Description:
Oligomer: heterodimer
Strand content of chain A: 15-25%
Structural class of chain A: alpha+beta
Number of helices of chain A: 5
Number of strands of chain B: 0
Amino acid sequence: MRLTVMLSKIAKFSTDYSNLPESYIKRAMRQVYWEAPRDLPQYLPVTLEKKKFRYTMNRPWTEEFRRQNLSRRKKVFVEPLKEWTFFRGDRVEVLVGKDKGKIGLVSQIIEERNWVVVEGLNVHYRWIGKTDDYPGTVIQSEAPLLVTNEVALVDPSDDKGTKVEWRFTEQGEKVRVSKRTGHIIPVPISASETIDFKAKAGYPEQEKDTRAADMSEHTYIPQSKTFEMDLMEHYRLE
Amino acid sequence: MQLTFNDSSSLIDFVFLSFRPANSTSIHMTSFKSSNLMQFFDDPKNFGASEVKSGRSWTVDELRIKSNIDLQKLWFVLLKERNMLLTMEYNCREACYLFPSPERIDKIQDSMTRLEQVIHERNDAYWQLEIGEEAPKPRAEKTFDPTDPLAAIREPIEAVTQVKDRATLKFQYLIKEKERKLKLKQKRLHEREAAMLLKYFPNMDKEALQAKYPDVNVEKLKFVQRTRGSHEFNTA
């Protein structure tokens, strides 16, 4: 029976928002300690590489993430959730900290750590660009909040935080329903936003991109031929 | 990435010209684009750029509606783009410049893999109908799984079921023992992880935990010492 190694997995929303192919993210994250030379048959083709990553506020394909993951750190235990209920642009109420009770919009989600970053809330201030003479500039940075107990989705009917459940409507659509009032909390439009576009229709086509009309043009007529036979007949090479 | 068919006519010339016999001296270069070798490099305005925007890769469904000729043209368009990107990557590394948007190479690779998959599907349909076998794959998939180094020879070993000689039986016994030990090690690791999760998150969803670790009996873990954490309800 084949056994798979427990590799750290990147969550779906991270890859969706970034619009990057999964193979690129894996390639960018790779930290290889040693790799056996593939052309020498006396070595088994092994690769000694980093397998357990600690997910941070920086996205996994960035240089900052790589620097944060160079040294080995204590393991982080992340509560497994059945379903993810938070999206970008959701109105949430902060339940802990100095901004307790305030409502804000979700600007970033880090599913690997069950984190949500709320815009302008739960902030701390730090100095950057500090040199010997110059004190540097102070910037505001939001700390992440745990999805399980530090943040709650806001019920649109009474503007207060509630516990939320995924349920099916009569039409068969899966929606988020507030447990307290029973109101449906719709998924915001900016949930499908990515780095490249705000909405799929608004994506500006680049020079080398195939136009939508060309892409959806149906040119295939199934025939009892292989690919090679079809090409040979087309180019009259029999 | 979704690439245009704009240069398909010049591509046809290129493909057709390559079939001419070698002793012919009349290969015309005028039908090619000017600065033929510069096609190996990106648009000069992208030199030194920090980012080059590009669309997503082709999906299998989008490729399935295209005819074989279109797929052939697309393959060469993708191939030329890949060569260009690999050239740029190499040169940027040599000159210590940032290579902008390296994910383009992966997008091209995904598109080419899916294109091959679609062609194989079509060939397979013909082979299954007319010949009764599966179509042969042009490139043998050589994947090595480090957790299962003997995967390549397991099939021939399992096929030899009639042989009951001492050496084969001993080898089969030892392989099973190795797998059993690995499986137990994984199970113990999962049990420990699940117990630690219960320790830190006593109110967590047990079904979610069971779904994450299907080989662990979450109900029995409650009685394990490790799951007892120091929380308000179990400390003085």
